[in-house]
Amino acid sequence: MKIRPLGDRIVVKRTKEEERTKGGIIIPDSAKEKPIEGVVVAVGKGKTLKDGKVRPVEVKEGDRILFGKYSGTEVKLDGEEIVIVREDDILAVLA
User: Torsion angle, CA of 13/18/22/26, rounded to 10 degrees?
Assistant: First the structure.
């Protein structure tokens, strides 16, 4: 898959949701929520400021991030579901 986001947009691949709870209960597909954690696949050049300068994006490819539950646009590309989010929608980078 080859994709290059524009501006301050970031392409994220969601991590898999747990199939069981910590107590061992299996969660059915209808009760699962989409994970808000993912891995950065591609990053745009950055946000263009009012003075014309470009501020680079703070995350890089391979970073694990948390993003807003309802943020971004879901896209299916080459059979894989990805999410395209703006840098503002990223809540944290996981260490």
Answer: 170
